[in-house]
Amino acid sequence: MKQFKGLRAARMPHRTIHLFRKGLRLHDHPALLAALESSEVVYPVYILDRKFMTSVMHIGALRWHFLLQSLEDLQKNLCRLGSHLLVIQGEYEPVLREHVQKWNITQVTLDAEMEPFYKEMEANIRCLGEELGFEVLSVVGHSLYDTKRILDLNDGTPPLTYKRFLHILSLLGDPEVPVRNLTAEDFQKCRPPDLDLTECYRVPLPADLKIPPESISPWRGGETEGLQRLEQHLADQGWVASFTKPRTIPNSLLPSTTGLSPYFSMGCVSVRTFFYRLSNIYAQAKHHSLPPVSLQGQLLWREFFYTVASATPNFTKMAGNPICLQISWYEDAERLHKWKTAQTGFPWIDAIMTQLRQEGWIHHLARHAAACFLTRGDLWISWEEGMKVFEELLLDADYSINAGNWMWLSASAFFHQYTRIFCPVRFGKRTDPEGQYIRKYLPVLKNFPSKYIYEPWTASEEEQKQAGCIIGKDYPFPMVDHKEASNHNLQLMKHVREEQYRTAQLTRDDTDDPMEMKLKRDHSEENVTKAKTARMTEQT
User: Where is each Photolyase/cryptochrome alpha/beta domain found (predicted)?
Assistant: First the structure.
């Protein structure tokens, strides 16, 4: 906390509102620590702006439950330290204006965020500060690095490949270490006068916000739950050291990865804490996996997408996005609805979409399969439509990662081996030949023999009757012929990439696949021919 050392000596202690946005935790919270170290009074505030959460963040019912659970947990943890979370419902600007004046506030502290809507919010808070006479202190706490430092080292532009990104990080060195833990003494000396804490500032119940009843989900929100999950995984140091993400199982009935992503997304668990706990385990291991497939590598992918998103216009859209291929996707509301509501007729895809809707989480390879099917694999529907569905349903929905992954999986940017298309039958069968995952999430198919569970339409009418499920009546026929659709779409994508070769090259590393190497040679030969023609023209 070197940057804050001279603050108290130079000025009178502040009266501070600390604004929680993400960062719903007490461990490794540099902005909250800065508030406590520079103030005589600190009001811990969460402004629950329902209009912002629904129209800007687009959060669905499951994430609402996760958010309220996280706020309730934050409230309990603050109470243990002699403080209290003040949840205020309403729109940001009028709520903040009222309470700054009511409490004679001289400082507002908050986490620095990189999403455009959070940047706009911070800019508006700073304008309000100039008007009402309070200072604003924002501190990076949601990511490992300050994305501005990465951009500065890359000549003011985002590194568009993971390889280039890792090179920039090698120049920066390790991330800042987590800040010290907060204590009851920190809050005691900054305790605000007694407030009416009965109804006015309590965490609302889901029913208060007319949120539908909670679905069954293995994830409960909050710092306490997130840290327990963290400790549970770090206890198996051998698993941590050898973790290789592509080898995890997409259709296991329990998560085969850490399942920490919802807690990182909401800021219930600090990524810096996780990073350095991993570093300690790696230091003691004779051998350990490396980025991009290691656990630390997964955190760095998160940083990569944060950095690119922070400096790329229209990152969550195709139009106006300079790194994204401009593709004439089909507009088909009926097909999109079938995909979203698990009615594609492909049990593996429908089981994935059912788990997503019920639990708010699916394995990353399951996300790959569902996204490929919607976009370049089978339906040729825009990645933006899939991104919106994931944004609503995923507990770990994240502006940068969600959009970045959808561009990747649709081969619109970042991913260039576009000839690799996930088969909606064979892919799931490889790791779960008995179809236990399908039987759990699509119980209508549970009585089919294993040889039919991924392709129930191939069972005879008598076998369908024995299974208690008639295809076309109790469960739909496949909505497309996968082989025919994928071959057609492959040709479309090949044509797009030939036409938009320069855009495609922006986000690719040096490791080319054979198809891309051919395209590269073709373009190089074309450029050589053009250069020779130009020279001949000059000579004549």
Answer: 14-144
210/183 Cα distance (integer angstroms): 36
Q: Binding site for FAD: which residues?
A: 257-261, 298-305, 396-398
Give dist(CA 433, CA 128) in Å, integer.
60
* Residue spans of beta strands (DSSP E) within 318-416: none
Report yes or no: 311 and 321 within 8 Å, Cβ to Cβ.
no
- 219 and 66 Cβ atoms separated by less than 8 Å: yes
DSSP string, 138-152: EEE-SSSS-HHHHHH
The residue written with tokens 């811990």 in the block is 44
Q: Are 376 and 421 in contact (CB under 8 A)?
A: yes
Would you say 332 and 340 are in contact if contact means Cβ atoms under 8 Å apart? no
Q: What residues have CB less than 8 Å from 464, skipping those under 6 apart?
A: 456, 470, 471
CB-based contact 128:17 (threshold 8 Å): no
| 391-434 pLDDT per residue, tens | 999 999 999 999 999 999 999 999 999 999 999 999 999 989 99
Q: From residue 202, how far is each of 72, 77, 103, 208, 277 by CA, in Å?
A: 9, 14, 18, 11, 34
- At how many degrees (to 10) do helices 383-393 and 347-359 cross? 40
Determine how many CB atoms are found less than 10 A away from the CB of residue 341.
Answer: 12
Helix (H), strand (E), coil (C) string for 95-111 = HHHHHHHHCCCCEEEEE
Q: What's the sign of the alpha-carbon dihedral 486, 489, 491, 497? A: negative
Q: How far is CA 326 from CA 190, 235, 320, 329, 497, in A?
A: 54, 46, 9, 9, 10
Which parts are annotated binding residues?
A: 257-261, 298-305, 396-398
Q: Which of 28, 214, 31 is nearest to 113 (CA)?
A: 31
> Mean pLDDT per 10-residue run, the chain (540 residues)?
43 93 97 98 97 92 95 97 95 97 97 95 98 98 97 97 96 96 96 73 92 78 96 85 61 63 97 93 77 81 97 98 98 98 98 96 93 98 98 96 97 96 95 95 98 98 98 98 98 97 91 47 45 35
User: CA 268, CA 250: separation in Å to the nearest integer?
Assistant: 25
Comparing C-alpha atoms, which of 476, 375, 389 is closest to residue 422? 375
φ, ψ for residue 48 (rounded to 5)? -90, 90
Other C-beta atoms lying within 10 Å of the C-beta of residue 286 = 5
CA 500 – CA 417 distance, rounded (Å): 15
* pLDDT (tens digit per residue) in 228-264: 999 998 888 887 877 665 555 566 545 556 789 999 9
What's the farthest any 2 CA atoms get from each other in the chain?
Answer: 90
